[in-house]
Amino acid sequence: MNQRSFKEYVQGPVQIGMGMGILSLLARWVTGSTILSSPESMVKYGVFGGIGYALMGAFALFAFSFIGKRVRRDFPEGLTIGDYLKTKLNPLGYWTFVFILILTSLHILFIQGMAASTLFRFLFHSSLSIEMFLFICFCVLFAGFGGLKMIHHLAAFKVIIMFAAVILIPLYFFVKEGIQPVYDGIRLYHPYMLVINHYDIWSFLIAGMLVGFGQFFFDLTSWHRLFMIEIKKVPLTFSLTGLIWLIFPLSFTSLFIIVIFTGGFSDIQSILVGLANKITTPFFFILFVLCAFSAITSTFGAGLHSLVSFIVVNVIGPFRKYSNEQQKLRMAYLLSICIGVLTYFATILNSSSIVELLFYSGNIYSALLAPIVSIVFSKGKVSNIIPFSAVIGIIISFIFLPFASDFQSIWISGFVSFFIVMTHTIFKFTINRKVHHVKQQ
């Protein structure tokens, strides 16, 4: 907690290499929702839903490597995504995206809070108020007060715990139960899980690609890590992270298949209870709990730290001149506490499932995909119509929400913003060609 400067609080003392970059990104993206929503995707949309969830995240991280390479080439120095957007957007478009970034970042913290509450219900079967209070306090202390240095100190330990869990626990179950009995049990009790040509699966996968890519491309923490990694190592770091990340949701999906092959279930909570009953070895049970807790706290901490840094630098910074670095640090600590309190009350008063929460914000993320790609690959400043296209897409999708399914509204928001961006790009290209032709004459 003894940072010498606010920049050290935000980015640490030095730029990081590929190894530390992969650890840092895994600590962000192996989340509580990865552990819980990949099996929940399997429960709702079959085995291929769980596999599709894993592939969506891996492809998004791989695709972000191209985004990151272009960004660092055009803008090698920066602290946050806000620094980059300020160079590419006009003031109105910039503040529009700032508002959306804050909203989506708070939503990510809220999802991790809900994942933590699910874990605590599974462990303690009691009121969540005390457990969630301790969880929020821990995250605020190690991330909000400790800064990036403390986050990196804990990242390696957490990733090791998570790797041990995703490798050892499924291996233990498959050796104990065997593969053929598991397959036969799924065919007997849950044959729908083995069906791929089902409309809901494809709807889920298409909508999930839009949401996943939009979330990865517009994530504060991913951009934060982008500016910390050495420029020449950015593409390979994000690509390898996507490949390694793929292991985690696939492993958790296979783990929960082991639980349900002997009978029915009612919801994700009942599957967790079934998992507890099947893990008869204390070592593996403790390992699973540590894995889940590590994933949730690392993601919450990374998101909290990035959001606080973004607000101090890009939201408060333009309106308040700090006399010294300590003032910035005190503001960061105060914001960490306020955001922690907000997340605490929002979590204990909500009862939605993780997948419902992920797709509730899907309209926003799918609408952001085309604009952020256009901003990155455009030369110079872009018109306000680009960020406004996301807002228009979000508004229209919510207007059609009563008449469309959740997935269809995600498609609508993505299509509307894409159509506006493409129309503007074609119109701009046509005008520039005409101007160039007139000048030649």
TrEMBL record:
InterPro entries named in the record: Na/Glc_symporter_sf, Na/solute_symporter, Sodium:Solute_Symporter
Keyword Cell membrane: yes
Reactions that this protein is recorded to catalyse: L-proline(in) + Na(+)(in) = L-proline(out) + Na(+)(out)
Transmembrane segments: 12-31, 43-67, 92-110, 122-145, 151-175, 196-218, 238-263, 275-296, 331-351, 357-378, 385-404, 410-431
Principal location: membrane
Ion transport listed as a keyword: yes
Topology of the protein relative to the lipid bilayer: Multi-pass membrane protein
Protein name per the record: Sodium:solute symporter
